[in-house]
Amino acid sequence: MVHALSEIRRVLVTEGILIDMRPLAERWQIEVVSTDTLKETGRVMDLPEQVNGDVAANEAMKEAETRGWFAPEHEEFFPFFYSWDTPSEMEEFIKDDWADFINLSEDAKKATRSTWAIGNADSRVRVRMKVLIARWKKL
Amino acid sequence: MSLQKDPERNEIHHLRKYVDLTGKRILEVGCGEGRLTWQYAKWTNSTVAIDLDHDSLRVAKVDRPYDLEDNVHLACADSHSLPFSKEKFDIAILAWSL
């Protein structure tokens, strides 16, 4: 990662901007939502690969700052939603695409299914990811 | 599959809040299928979007809007060895790729 940051610095103009945008492991909330309701039904379980990836990325940016390559300017977090029509579609997606990063407990699955089943006709399920956006300036 | 990603468009909203892309030369690292790229590229002078995943790039090339064909260039490239000369870009975006 540090070498990639060195390469990015090389191809940026002086005082060029680096935007680091990525989801962070923080036991993302599972929600059932409709036009007029929002219910939290549980949280995902973070797996070590996801957590370790955050640590490595943060350390790489810190190293780039220590080496005088980039200076931090601003950062904040925002929600990024993955949304599905049904709980089973969410479960299938997590199993197929995110199995290395997060897991769903049986309790969370049951709570989401039952909440969705008695919800409004337009109810959907979604995962509320926490995404970091950070702005760095090339030194 | 009914999957929707970021239906509220929070990502592009925050990106535009954090950096003025207008007329800039952009390098996007980890463009995937171009989900974010198509949302901002129209404001840029030029955008080079790279990824290592051939399948994702293939989808991106198919999905690339017609009006972005001239200023969005997609390439399979590794961020550890960028095939570009120095100081070629104004802004680099690490899109879920660090």
Whole-angstrom Rg of chain A: 19 Å
State the helicity of chain A in percent bands.
25-40%
What's the total count of β strands of chain B? 5
Kindly, what is the distance between the CA atoms of the first and last residues of chain A, rounded to a whole number of angstroms? 18 Å
Order of helices and strands of chain B: EHEHEHEE
Q: How do the strands line up in the largest sheet of chain A? A: 2-1-6-4
Q: Largest chain-chain contact?
A: A-B, 38 and 36 residues
Structural class of chain A: alpha+beta
Silhouette of chain B: globular
Q: Round the mean pLDDT of chain A to the nearest integer and report it.
A: 96
Largest sheet composition of chain A:
4 strands, antiparallel
- Reading the helices and strands of chain A in chain order gives HEEEHEHEHE
Helix fraction of chain B, binned, reads 10-25%
Description:
The complex is a heterodimer of chains A (139) and B (98). With 139 residues, chain A is of the alpha+beta class. Chain A has four helices and six strands, in the order H-E-E-E-H-E-H-E-H-E. The longest helix of chain A is centred in the middle third of the chain and has 19 residues. Chain A is elongated and about 55 Å long. Chain B is of the alpha/beta class and 98 residues long. In chain B, 23% of the residues lie in helices and 26% in strands. In chain B, strand 2, helix 2 and strand 3 form a beta-alpha-beta unit. The model of chain B has no long low-confidence stretch (mean pLDDT 95). Classes of the chains: A alpha+beta (139), B alpha/beta (98). At the A-B interface, helix 1, strand 1, helix 2, strand 4 and strand 6 of A face strand 1, helix 1 and strand 5 of B.
